[in-house]
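B., you asked whether I could sanity-check this one before it goes into the benchmark set. Here's the sequence:
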Amino acid sequence: MPILDLGTRCLLCLHGADSVRYLNGQVTQDVRLLLAHPQSALASCVTDAKGRLQAFVTLYLQETQRPSLWIEAPIELREVLLARLSRYLIADDAEIEDISDQYHLAHHLSHTPTPGDFSHSRLGVPGFDRWLPAQETHSHTDLLSIEEAERIRIENGIPAWGHELQEGMLPPEAGLDATAISYQKGCYIGQEVISRIKSAGKVNRRLCKFSLEASDVCACAILLDENGGEVGELTSVAHPFALGYVSKKAFGQTRFTLRLPDGTLRGDAARIRD
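And here's what the prediction gave me:
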C-alpha cells in the first residue's frame, strides 16, 4: 500500500457549539456533510468577498477527543489562513487554534481506511488521510516519491496549490465547482460572485488535461493557437501528461503548438484529453 508522506501541514482546530455554523459561513463547501459522513474528508475553498481564492483546504470532523473541525492546507498558508478564519469570530461560541506542530499527515493509496482515517481522493484515486503525532515515524517502507505522486495527480487532473491553484484566482476556472463548492447551502463569504459565475456559465480560462508528444516540455510552456497567438500555459508536467489553462478564445481548440521557455517551438505537441 503506497504512502505519500506529506509531513507537517497547516492544521487548524475549530471547536465549540457554533463551530459548524461558523465554518459554513467561511468556506465554499457545506460543512454539514461531515456530520453525515464523519470518516470522509471534504475539499473546500476559502474565498474573499470577490469570490477569489485565498486558500484550498481539506476539512475533517475529528471526534477522538472533544468534537472539533480540523482544517488542513499547505504549511505556507499557516499564518494567512489562521488570520482569515479568525477574523469574523466575534460573538460565536467557537475557538480556533493552530495545532500544525502537533501532527504530520500521511496519505495512503488504498480503498480500506481504518477507524480514525479519512477517505480522500487527494491524488484523484481512492485513498485516505491519516494524521500521526508529530514524533511518530512511519512503520512502512512503501513510500511514494514526490515524483510518482505528481504523476498520479497530473494524470488524474487534480489541481495543486502553487501550480494550478493560486491566491486571487476564481475557483471555477480550475473546475473546483465540481468538487469543492456547494451551490445549495446558502451564504458564505464570496458566495454571490461564485453563484453569478455559475448562472452565467462563463469563465475566462479553464483548466485542462493534456497529452504531450514532446519529451522536453516543462511547466511554463506557452500554448499557441494556429495563428501563433498565446492562448494559455502549462502549469504541471509529468510526461506524457500535463495540466494547464486555456483561455476562452481557444476553448474549441484541441491541439496546440508549444513555445518552450527558451523560445523553441514544438508543433502540435499538446493535445487536450478527457
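One thing to flag: Helices lie at 19-24, 33-36, 78-86, 146-155, 191-200. Otherwise nothing jumped out at me.
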